[in-house]
Amino acid sequence: MIRWESTVSTTSFTYQPINIDQARIFGAELEMIRRLGKYVKAFFNYTWQDAQNTASNTVITYSPKNKYNLGLIFDHPALSINLSQRFVGEPTIGRVNYVLRLYCGPVKPRWKRA
Would 11 be classed as within a structural domain? Predict the structure, then answer.
């Protein structure tokens, strides 16, 4: 297992990977998918995890306890659109991360290569 440690000096700020000798990670996941029509479905998934460095008895850096994704998928033979939202809970550095993505594009090309 690798954790990232920050080093701050008067002239620089760097992150350095550090090996963790012993780690214990456990958690649970839940996923639900619901079809809303012939080409549309909604999804939700949730993850809870507890990641501990057992050598120092501390939480592993950048390992949030809670994460979830939710979204809608339009999946037609000619076009696929995926609108999703991701939440990554507060990791040990005290930051919350939201990501909103939209993907739109052809599922399968309708032409053949020569």
Answer: no
Beta pairing class for 23-35 and 13-19? unpaired
pLDDT digits (tens, 9 = 90+) for 59-75: 777 788 899 999 999 99
Residue 71: inside a domain, yes or no? yes
What is the full DSSP assignment across 64-114?
A: -SEEEEEEEEEE-SS-EEEEEEEEE---TT---EEEEEEEEE-SS-SS---
Is 82 part of a structural domain of the chain? yes
> Which residues lie below 8 Å from residue 106, measured CB to CB, with a gap of 6+?
78, 79, 80
Task: Tell me whether residue 14 is in a domain.
Answer: no
